[in-house]
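Exercise (ungraded).
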Amino acid sequence: RKEVEQDPGPFNVPEGATVAFNCTYSNSASQSFFWYRQDCRKEPKLLMSVYSSGNEDGRFTAQLNRASQYISLLIRDSKLSDSATYLCVVNPWETGTASKLTFGTGTRLQVTL
Amino acid sequence: GAGVSQSPRYKVAKRGQDVALRCDPISGHVSLFWYQQALGQGPEFLTYFQNEAQLDKSGLPSDRFFAERPEGSVSTLKIQRTQQEDSAVYLCASSFSRQGAGEQYFGPGTRLTVT
């Protein structure tokens, strides 16, 4: 079983739609969680961190359910510019080790007119 | 300001050749990471440096892979006797904090194709 699992998509949605991505992780001791965005042939960039209390940044809302080991990302009012691959990322953050980010395979989003 | 830079951006190697990939992290960043991203997959951790010390190399797939950061800034990832399965994008990331606890900033990657 992969440490971080995501539906690869693609998710094809019209502009203005709301879309949600989910992710599950296997290491219950994981300490921090992120969503990264990766455009085609570009490097990953941090979209937002994910906190236990849930957090929102404009049109983007991230939630964490530690009991179910589940992370979600909601995008409201999708824009064409949101088209990208969204990577779910977990940091096990074991004491004394480096932050070895563990990435899911990514979920591809295509927003259309 | 300048971000993480990597060179070359593209490298084609014949099977069996040695390659060297360079990473220039953001100035002052203590932590440096190498990741490998195969087509259609997320990046996978290879190795980690804190300044010049290589503290974790658990992700290196074989002893053909070797990384160094002798002066605690620029890092080189070397792959000896390249194989077709080494074809991937090699991403370097740096972080201001020790152990990379803060945000990791990624470079554009080196796309390696082994023929």
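Further reading is listed at the end of the chapter. For now, observe: The mean pLDDT of chain A is 92. The interface with chain B takes residues 4, 8, 42-46, 87, 89, 93, 97-106 of chain A (CB under 8 Å).
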